[in-house]
Amino acid sequence: DIQMTQSPSSLSASVGDRVTITCRASQSISSYLNWYQQKPGKAPKLLIFASSSLQSGVPSRFSGSRSGPDFTLTISSLQPEDFATYYCQQSYTDPPEWTFGQGTKVEIK
Amino acid sequence: QVQLVESGGGVVQPGKSLRLSCAASGFSFSSYFMQWVRQAPGKGLEWVAAVSYDGDKKYYADSVKGRFTISRDNAKNTLYLQTNSLRDDDTAVYYCAREAGASNYFDYWGQGTLVTVSS
Questions:
Q1: In sequence order, what are the residues at sequence separation of 6 or more whose Cβ sits closer than 8 angstroms to the Cβ of residue B95?
Q2: Three-class SS of residue B74?
Q3: Which residues of A touch B105 (CB under 8 A)?
Q4: What is the rounded CA–CA span in Å between residue B50 and residue B56?
Q5: If you ran DSSP here, which 8-state letter would residue B104 be given?
Q6: Is A32 within 8 Å of chain B by CB?
Q7: What are the tens digits of pLDDT across the range B3-58?
């Protein structure tokens, strides 16, 4: 199984802050990395797919990047509606055996 | 618009079975791989199972292999998850999701249905 490790597991930030969340896979996954946002009691929502492609309708303050084995989700200027839990997910394995990171909870400072 | 609506959750005793359904609308259901993902209370997301366009290919997480069966009825635009031999650690909200794109991402999710395994 490919293990996905997210860091940090939680963070406190203020409105307007720049926030970065990192995800690392236990083996190469090329750019098959997706990011989701989940608010309490709601289903996850796709933000970024294929490492850096912004899903339609998602604000441009969200961006994704890759540097070697490390993937980063960046929120350029945190907004009140961005306080949520964020998950990375690898979609590389064939046959499918998708795995998620453990999540990063973004809280209000 | 794309809609996925799960049903069938509830409280069930350990060792029993439950069939979950996911009714799809607003898109060509038979053109997409479909998934089940679950989330235990207060925990993260766990992929459970996937099924190909025509239902011919099925894939499972090791934690449910041999106990759960994913299937679909393209005539009814409905995805199913038959859950057998349920255990306490199967307690979770179960989401269905549509898989899209060459990068296999989940672009639409249902609202989830809660399965509670308890004696």
A1: A43, A44, B6, B36, B37, B38, B39, B109, B110, B111, B112
A2: coil
A3: 34, 46, 49-50, 89, 91
A4: 11
A5: T
A6: yes
A7: 999 999 999 999 999 999 999 999 999 999 999 999 999 999 999 999 999 999 99
Residues B100 and A38: their CA atoms lie apart, in Å, by 19
pLDDT at A22: 98
Tokens encoding B3: 């809609």
Chain B residues with CB-CB distance to A38 below 8 A: 45
Nearest by CB to residue B111, choosing from A43, A87, A103, is: A43
Contacts of A99 in chain B (CB under 8 A): 47
Calculate how close chain B gets to A17, using CA atoms only, in Å. Answer: 25
Is the predicted pLDDT of residue B101 greater than 90, yes or no? no
Q: In B, which residues are within 8 Å of A102 by CB distance?
A: 44
Distance CA A108, CA A17 (A): 11
pLDDT per residue as tens, chain A (109 positions):
899 999 999 999 999 999 999 999 999 999 999 999 999 999 999 999 999 999 999 999 999 999 989 999 999 999 999 999 999 999 998 889 999 999 999 998 8
Lookup: tokens for A50: 């294929």
Q: Cβ(A65)–Cβ(A50) under 8 Å?
A: no
Option in A43, A97, A99 nearest B95 (CB): A43
B13 CB-near residues (< 8 Å, 6+ apart): B86, B117, B118, B119
